[in-house]
Fold:
Amino acid sequence: MLSYIIRRILILPLILLGVTFLIFCLFSLLSPMERLATYINDPSVLKNPQSAQRLIDKYHLDEPFPTGYVHWLKSLLRFDFGWSPTANQPVWDAIMQRLPATMELVLYSIIPVILVGIWLGVISAVHHNDMLDQFIRVTAIIGWSLPTFIFGLLILFIFYGILGWLPPGRLSTWAQYIVYAEEGFKNYTYFITIDSLLNGRIDIFWDALKHLIGPIITLSYISWAYLLRITRSSMLETLRKDYIRTARSKGVDEKTVIHQHARKNAMIPVVTVAGMMIIRMLGGVVITETVFTYPGLGFWAASSAQQLDYGSIIGFALLFAFLMVVGNLIVDVSYALIDPRVRLE
Amino acid sequence: MVNDNKTKILQVKDLKTYFFTENGIVKAVDGVDFEIYQGETLGLVGESGCGKSVTAFSIVKLLDYPGKTVGGQVFFRGEDLLKKTEKKMRQIRGKEISLIFQEPMTSLNPVFTIGFQITEALTVHYKISKSKAQEKAVQLLEKVGIPIPEQRINEYPHQLSGGMRQRAMIAMALACDPTLLIADEPTTSLDVTIQAQILELMKTLLKEFNSSLIMITHDLGVIAEIADRIAVMYAGKIVEYTDTRSIFYNPLHPYTYGLLTSIPRLDLDIEKLDSIPGLVPDPLHFPEGCKFHPRCPFATAKCRKEEPVLKEVENKHMVRCWHFEKVKEEAKKIAFTGRLAVSE
Amino acid sequence: MNRIIKKLLSNTTSLIGLILLFVFVIIAIFAPIIAPPLFSDPYQIPRMSWDTEPQPPGFPISDDMIFVYESMGEPITRDKAIFGTAQGGYDIFYGLIWGTRTAFRIGIVTVVFSMLIGVILGSIAAYFGGWLDELLMRITDIFLSIPFLVAAMVLTTILGRGLDKVMIALVFFGWMGYARVIRGSILCAKEDVYVMAARALGVKDYSIIVRHLLPNTIFPVMVQASMNIGSMVITAAALSFLGVGAPLGYADWGQMVSFARNWIIGSPGNAGEYWYAVFFPGIFIVLFVLSWNLVGDTLRDIMDPRLRGEL
Structure:
């Protein structure tokens, strides 16, 4: 197994390099002038042909493909992703500033995925409950057919439009003032839920949480609906296996049979699927944050795409590709760790 | 041979287990009686689907849905197991009655070590420390003939060969020194040479632990090696029940006769290999009268209408057939000796 | 094949799916009759008024608009907005009817082309093996590393707005699933005796792949394709919703939903005021995707017993 892990780790930079190459190919479809726009923060520069040409040379924008790629790659490694007109700051800074908000959302969304998707899945397999089975089938089919943006709009409509409980955005105005403008508030993690507790402000904690619930439900829905089904069928299949019968024939009590003997085996494929679904949630943040006007990376990516802010959208894509590749590696490695048959090859 | 001085361990009386499927009721076990004495091995023989495994699972109440035991009694040490609560059954399973299954690869949990699965058999029934349980597990592995048991303890099932896995399963079954072992086709999935080794091992261990064994198989060669008495099953019922020697030298049921004649023989000059014509009957639509009559060369009109009862027709030899004398005649023509070594 | 059709018709879920699909097909075919176009480009949604606010179902066409059409010399075929109007006065009903054609076009075209690419690459990789297989699989991994929606966003931003650009983006990043599936099937089938026999007879590689291997391995790919039609339409709709897909006023379901984005919350005191702006487009999208999923789900169930050998 060690060789397997090493091989995967070695391939990782190759894949990342390939991704940068792919994106550079797409980027090169634009003219040098258009590409120049991603590096300057003052559009009036473009109007002056001489200064424009000087800058084009500086950034190696009209050189042949291979050298252009190398220069571009070098700037990436310097964390120079260009300038974002939509954020009015360098792309990298824009990413760093918005990353905590998105991470806070994604990490919290993992909770319902595991709780409902896995935990409920195990329970539903063990207790044959017709109503629960129907619920699972219906949510699975709906989940697969209901696009995230419609589901999100529905949630917004019901829980904010009608009930007024879950407002869009990240914080109410009064809370924003305290967190960003007031002096006493210290930002330790930039996760508002954690920071507010560390600062002793329960009111801000609740406010932040209220704003998060709608996006969390929307982001996690497809993942847990799918996972619920997978867990249930994996558990059912495991319970039919011969070694379960053996355990019972030894006199092991049913609870241990289910939670030790069966679940450990059933979880093996489930964990990999769960990992993949969580990674896929990364793609879902774009829509979710847009629907709820949640000021994270996804919202910014959507507005930059709309306003043809090439640099930002490319920076965003690179970041997410990186996260996905690393995430996939973690999932593959943990699969190898969990299953002794793979571990001891 | 049956020894009347020994204690009766198990008495199965008129056991009936039915499967309530969507397509109808399958009478997998339909009135089965037998008994087992201490230290004795009973062979349960028959083709697949005749109900032998279901009988075994019914005894320990390990039936899968939609199976249900609907009638009969199973007296183990004088108490009817069918009347016991699940909690009490769990105390018996693995401790007093142990099972050995056919496929050791799928019957062992792939994510637990061999050591854990054996020690579990001990810790479930005894208040014993982990280290003591480990010690005992190593001893058991040694007893079943697994080399370097201290190392094997920490290995996983997929790291062992087929024969070793089965030995490990036997060790697991013997952990609590059970009174009765039930082995469901334990050698069927193994190579022939390994088969012989496992059978030898089982015979040795049975003698040492003085346990009884119900050996379920379709292989007459295996049964000849190890069983004291044999019950031949067909379509959910026992059709012949006597000691091993009589089965081979003096078969009385057409089905038994058919099984014996379909074994290839090196010592006789037989040109064509006989097989029992026809197929095992569809459990949803058993034939009228004697269940075997469609495939029976001795069948008459009576067989088509009336089902025979299991009767003791010779000394301690029971058979379920109207025409067992005809079978006796035929069997005399061919001497069933030689290849099948039956120990006295 | 007939057996498959029979099975699809007998299963309730797939039957519902097929009926729904049939309804959509009818709508798409008869669009010019159900909603007669006003402009030379039938995909340009006519407006009912100049209002920014969406108007409820039954809203009559405004006088300004009547004047506009009369001066253009166009007859007025509809004087009420049956489903209401979206932001900017666009007729929702019209948008949804013609949007059905758009949806079919997007779904089928993208799936066919991405399937083509995926099957070609995947079968080459599986059949020839070795370094070619490694290379193609690494390339597949690279393409898979970027989340689908994000990748499509990058490409549509660079290429510009327009439905054809959207379809290019979807195909460019949508072939990987098919490649993997066909590769898996062919890797198994490659060892079969009939392949070795064909090779021994000297049949050319290309012929073996196309005439012998593909017909036997293509079915799982078809199942995946039928389920992907729905997700392609969803992704295209998502892109339009985000404002990077279809151009303004184009009859596309996603665009209709994006028109409703700012109005979903309603006005103070009347929360559900603009429900129709989201409800009608939403229903169309959901039912369309649902119908493909129901059919695809049943196709997948049909596939399983075949794998087990019960034919």
The first helix of chain C runs from residue 2 to 10. Chains C and B do not touch (no CB pair under 8 Å). The radius of gyration of chain C is 23 Å. Confidence is low (pLDDT under 50) at residues 306-311 of chain C.
